Amino acid sequence: MSLSRSDIELAALKKEYPNGFASFAEFIASDSDNTSTIYRRFNRLTARILLYLQAKLRNLETIQDSLDEEVLHSSDKKIKGATTSWEEFELLAKTRESEKKRMAVAEEIERAVKSYRWMDEALLLQSDILRLKAPAARTLRAFKDGFEPEPGKTMLRGHSSHILDDESDLVALRVPTEQDRLTKFVQAYCPWPFVMSPSSMPEPPVNFYLT
Q1: pLDDT per position as a tens digit, 140-184
Q2: Closest Cα to residue 164, out of 182, 146, 176?
Q3: Residue 33, SS3?
């Protein structure tokens, strides 16, 4: 997260917003390079919703298989006839309890399949989210400092005050341009040029020679 000179010059002209969600949204949106677009994935909750829907569909599948097994071994011609004609099935469901149950299961499956289509979209969306990268460490530090300008005083209150606690669940919609391999190597093995100002760098030794 960085602030350019134009960001600083425009700061005085910016509109003021109420504390809370409005000011936090402005804080995120005011970042010119958009690296502060950091949000929770909510991986655990997403996984639970998908598991619930999957379990519901599996349960209905088991019930439907059981009902099909009953029809397979039935000697009732009307019940067998209802398996090939929707009209007969619908009519029989009005008078027989077994067919009422079968119709109720069919209707429940129809509703569940519609939810399953949402599940398809949710799985694809979750796949896209999982491909997003975590925020850079320096960006995240700056973001947290903005979210909590004073110790114990966050921009959001209640449970939302802990929204950034689980760093493993955070995702950045935009990350800084990846540094080249040489720069990464130098930073890893010779980090002092990147963390020390010129004035604080050690001066080279001066050697005196007698002639």
Answers
A1: 998 999 999 888 899 999 999 999 999 989 988 887 665 444 445
A2: 146
A3: coil
